Amino acid sequence: EGTGPIWLDDVRCQGNELSLLGCPASPWGVTNCQHREDAAVVCAEPFQLRLVDGPGRCAGRLEVNRAGQWGTVCDDGWSRTNAVVVCRELGCGVARTVGDLPRGRPRFGPGTGRIWLDDVRCQGQEGTLQDCAHRAWGHHDCTHQEDIGVVC
Q: How far apart are CA 38 and CA 40, in angstroms?
């Protein structure tokens, strides 16, 4: 609970405002609240992904950043639809198929550190890989020999 004056009440943001002060609300300082009703917000870092150890920024081993730490994505259940979402998110055009590599999947060597995602299942319309279904962050049954690569 906070202390001191309560400045905002009945805040009704739509989601397109540039700041909290752009949201409709009761007049400044007019409230019927108590501090046991104080609101809180937890901000998350922007989702980041990259392709590394490939011939350029649009081909390589897929890595994602979680809590400031880069980690890899396991190939379990990986599909071309997942690659389509990754390539679109990176602004790298369409996902290319690679038929001469193991199981048709590009390999760019094992990563190190955390394996962040496993069993990723995109439907194709997602704007970002983090919106695709997947196991809980950091939960997997993989080794770095299963790190997925993507070619766009």
A: 7
What is the SS3 assignment for 26? Answer: coil
Q: Is 143 exposed, middle or buried (0-12, 13-18, 19+ CB in 10 A)?
A: exposed
pLDDT digits (tens, 9 = 90+) for 9-45: 999 999 888 888 889 999 988 999 899 988 888 776 7
Q: In 67-139, where do the E strands start and end?
A: 69-73, 114-117
pTM: 0.69
What does the radius of gyration of the chain's CA atoms come to, in whole angstroms?
A: 21
CB count in 10 Å sphere of residue 73: 28
Phi, psi of 85 (to 5 degrees): -65, -45
CA distance 152 to 150: 6
Residue 24 in contact with residue 9, Cβ under 8 Å? Answer: no
